[in-house]
Fold this protein.
Amino acid sequence: MAGKYINILLAGLLTILLFACSDDRDSLSGQASGDPLLTFNMTRAGGDIVGNTLVYLFDGQGSDAGKFNHKVQEVTYGPDRLSMTVAAGMWNIALVTANTDFSGGLIQPVRSAARKDLKMWETQLSGGTLPSMPELRTANIDGQQVIGGQDNSVTGTTILSRNVALVKVVIADAGGLDVNGTHNFELKDVPTTLNWEGGLFPTAKSPRVSNTPMTGTFRVKDSVSLPGHQRSDTLYFVIPAHKGNDYLTANPKDTTESHMKVSVDLACEGGSRFQKTDVVIPRVPRVNGILLVRLLVGGKLDVTADVLGWEDVELNADLSQTQLYTDKASVGLSHKDTLYVNTNASDFSVQSPGGWITSVRKIANNGVEITANVDTYVDNQPRSSYITIKANNVTKRIPVTQRPDEGTISVNNKRLVFCPNLHENRQIEITSIGGDWKFLTTNPRKATANKQNGVAGNSTVSFTRSSVAYNKTLDEGHLVYGDTTVIVKNMMTLDTDTIRLTNCYIYVDDNNTIAAKAPEGGASSAETISEDVIVYGGDRIIENFSSPQNWIRNISWDFIGQKLTFTTDRNVGNPDPEDDDEPRSGKMTFRHATCPDYVVTANVYQDILVTIPPFHFFVVKFTWKNNDVDIAVEFAGNHLTSIGANNSTYDKIPVGYSMHNHNKGKAPEVIGTAGGTSTGRVSFEYRGQTLLQWGGDATGGQGETVFFNAPVLEGDVNSPRKIKLDVYATWYTSDRAPDTMTLTMYAYKGGSMQPSGTNFVHVGGETEPLYDKAHIVMITTTKGASNYSATTGGYTKVATITYDRVKHSASIKVWAAVP
């Protein structure tokens, strides 16, 4: 046999050679006479696999074929073989093993029951969750003839392969996750049970699955090479898998159809969470294979999956007994590592395929020094290759992975918090072991470092906060303020550490002034939801609100929507009632939650209170019983030299019976009888529109009306804010005075005013008046002469209406006696 060898590619598979020997050869001491010795040569299995192997016998023929007979109790374990005595006969043999002690979880078969109906393994809950199971390996050797009482030799081979699948789960791409948060994962509908044939129980199509998920927690890191992208570490789960009758073929058909599901609960930047439940994995696990599940986290959760081979190493087993071992099965390095070889051959050789493995050479004490190129390494993208070691006819291929040597670079402060005036500068200390360092992110906009690289050992680096004059249109503030990360890398060991820069800033729009909503109508308070404040940095939270003014209260902050909410009370109860509902200013103080000593005091401005909504027509109506009344209404006292130049053009132009004789031609006017019978000034214009209009002369108690077209004066720079309108009345019937009449004022919105006799009615628009107020007044005068001006005699001054064209309110001062 010398010089001959066989190539075995172990994809988690171990070859077993079986030798059945009669009792007169190599008999074990103390074993039953007449039973032949059965020996399993477990080549390349390893001590743990051999030492944990259990042997079970099932009947191999007759009516009981396939039914359990007994477990072999006395097994002799050698370094690479098992020996036992077995009664002569035809046996179906089942071997079960793992690289750890699994016997406590194995379910013992029941005598005279078929293998497919017997549970072999069922994963039990541990601490309320479903754990991974051991890497269980099984082999079924059916139809093994053992003959006693004669010299015979029976040989054969079988495969002792894993009866499980490895599930590897990774967040392959994400954005917006909190690298310091907790990211929870659940693997659901996991198969739990295997039968003694190695299949899923009770069937491959409908296996028993757990109601409790397998769980894990991801660690998420920002990508160095792809800004804005993130990736997690890998979670590993070992689960039962179906060993069908064609599991060794490239595309087996006898597999499970039971899909597992995933659920995630991931922490996002800003404090929110991304949650998705019961997303189906598109591929099913395969026995002795890896189910690689990739999670893609964007606005949704996408799940992809691949089935990969679960490979160990490629070995050449030399039947001439050459032994070749290494101190580790694989090599992980950054720049350089050493592997030690143990062999009984006189010498060995090493080779590499080249590429990024730049050197492989033998050194003293059977060492192999492996050197890799660090300049072409792409951060966060480990790469794999191999080296080959050969001794005589035994060749061993050692996987080599280039990845960082973790723990070789660190910073003493992983988060630097800046804010205006208080924390403009921050320092960190970088410790780099075995190599020089540099920042991968140069000149971040949030803060600037005084150096970009350094040598091995300890280095002190100062960061200075950045600041700009904020301009919303250019969004410069969004670039400079807020959070970013800086990656520092050990250039020799490839290890990295991350520094988070938090440039806190609180921006208040409109020159540091927050606009407060004023109460409307009769409301006593108003709630303001303001977007005048923008918070940068950290959790973007402001807190500890206070105000020296008690009319500002109930202040809160929505950091997700970046909205400030507070309540302001109505401005009433002033010493001078004219100051009620006027504009006012206050203060509000708050601090940045991430930088607690950064305090901002903002101005709060509450605009004028609008007492009633804007209206179009203000109507003055007099009503009485019987006889003849004359009214006169005019703007007076509004000619202010400090305001405009045209406000005098509508002052002192009374409308009413016979009022056309006064201030003729001052403004475009209409003279006539309107809806009554006697001549008077019906209306006049201002800015091209009718400003004041009379309904006509009522001589028998029908009532007289004047309406004021308010929108004409809104926004008029030539008019004061508060415009006065005087109202007069007199009894034309000489013997009627003194007597009472009713003055009623209305405000209407929309529509039009249509004449109705000597009055007006509101048509269209809002049907109900916005304002409706009546006063009973005493009229003590009798008109003495038809040409009297209302202000020179013969009329009772009834009231002055002051119209606030900003508030849209009308205050009334009644001068006439009230009975």
